[in-house]
Amino acid sequence: MKKPILFLSPTIISGDPFIQPYEADILIKDGMISNISPPGSIQITNETDVRKIESKGWVLSPGFIDLHAHSDLYLLTHPEHEAKISQGCTTEVIGQDGISYSPIDNPKQLTAIREQIAGWNGNPSPEDYPNLGLFKWKSVKEYLDCLERNKTATNVAYLVPQASQLAQLYGNLRLLACGPWDQVATPEEIRSQEDELRKAMKEGAVGMSSGLTYTPGMYASTSELGSLCRVLAKEFPGAYYAPHHRSYGFKAIESYAEMLGLGRMTGCPIHLTHATLNFTENKGKAPLLISMIDSARSAGVDVTLDTYPYLPGCTTLSALLPSWASSGGPTETLKRLQDEISREKIRRAVEETGCDGGHGIPTNWDEIQIGSTNHPSIKHYSGRRVSEVAKTVNQLPIQVFFDVLIKDRLATSCLMHIGNEENVREIMCHHTHCSGSDAILHGKGTHPRAYGTFPRFLGHYSRELGLIPLNEMISHLTSRPAKRIGIYPHRGLIAEGSAADLVLFDPKTIKDKATFDEPKQRAEGIRFVLVNGQIAMDEGVLKGGRGGKVLRRRDDGVVC
């Protein structure tokens, strides 16, 4: 049995923005917050039985909650989970954007999923991890059981994927019902998706995600999505729908309106994930979006949102392709990429007219940074803009684009430098705003948000810019997302009887250090991280702790 832990005189920011920071001693025992008392008042019978941590001048807050994580395999293959633990993240929601590994019906489907999202999590061989039971699941229950059996660094909740944002892959529900084709779902296929959704929810999922920006997710009609949202609303109270909606560029406002309309139409809680307004044409439109959200909330719609505190986004390079070029799956896509007539049609769509894959806006290759690559001949492209690589190799940017996609078999990631700072700040200040990193952890050329999201909220936007006071900003990262998942006040709040998911940090120095050139640098100013009372970071040193729990929705609606 591990020793109890006594934090001496930290400044406690509880997660409740209506409680002002206060100084107290806090005793951690059996994974829970056992006692909160004035400094010096907790009596210990045997001093050697308790670990004391002098904390005066440091802030103790609830562990940070990532409402938009892509750690679906990294929790298993990289159990120390450096990226998240080092920045104070203690709980994650995975299964995002319609992208994950369950439910599936047969090994062939799982193989296709593994190949298509290799840019997000890699495509590890089970033989390299012989004791994990990697990819031996089909159902959501079996996947969550695998996470639980292997023990995770963070607490983890799961959204069942409906329609993938990736250009070659249907989300799991639609894949099972419709296959990987551009077609309207029949009534029978919608009923099949509803049945799969019910099964996944009964196995512990906390809601549903989808990815509607790219094929084949965009093939899902509003009525199809509405049918699934009604199942959540009527049969699984507290569960929510987290859509990656149809566009963050051209007609972005209309895309948000569609999602808010689903909430009005079905009564399903809507969580607008990575709620951004990108590209020049959306500059200054955040107030319009906020007015739409507030109007929906006034009408009784349960709407929340999350953002990451950076301007560039991150996706797969193949996501820039037009939808027709991706229909039928990766084999058909790669055939088109090697056909001269198809290549010219793709070029016109990507560079001249703008296509659905590029958010309806012609691609500017100066804004597209190549992320993680796999093929040896293009490894050195990682971290460089497509336009820069094109100049170096004396080719047109579109030729580089095609070459990378073919050699990497569509598994390359990319960063899109398309954000608007004024929109980021405006949306961040909304009273429903929560934290979500949207972090891809795999590969060398990842986004700095993988290591820097939470410290950047606190160090840059709260302390340096003074955008949101520290006490309130902590609620954005803790209690608000905990309420969305349904785990508050057991998590996301410092109170006696709550889980000991905690972060001890210096409010004067906490800061993100990850950059676009060196994205895997740990943040400064974080001293201790506890997950269910187990120390995961000790005086800034990762301990490899696996104190996390799989958070499942029970039949009575409780998530624990």
Automatic annotation (TrEMBL):
Family per similarity comment? Belongs to the metallo-dependent hydrolases superfamily. Hydantoinase/dihydropyrimidinase family.
Q: Which Gene3D superfamilies match?
A: Metal-dependent hydrolases
Write one Gene Ontology MF term: hydrolase activity, acting on carbon-nitrogen (but not peptide) bonds
Could you tell me which species this protein originates from? Kwoniella mangroviensis CBS 10435
Q: Which domain of life is it from?
A: Eukaryota
The protein's name: D-aminoacylase
Domain (Amidohydrolase): residue spans on this chain: 56-535
Q: Which residues form a coiled coil?
A: none
- Name the PANTHER family on file: COLLAPSIN RESPONSE MEDIATOR PROTEIN, HYDRANTOINASE/DIHYDROPYRIMIDINASE FAMILY MEMBER
Do you know which InterPro entries this protein is assigned to?
Amidohydro_3, Metal-dep_hydrolase_composite, Metal_Hydrolase, Metallo-dep_Hydrolases_sf
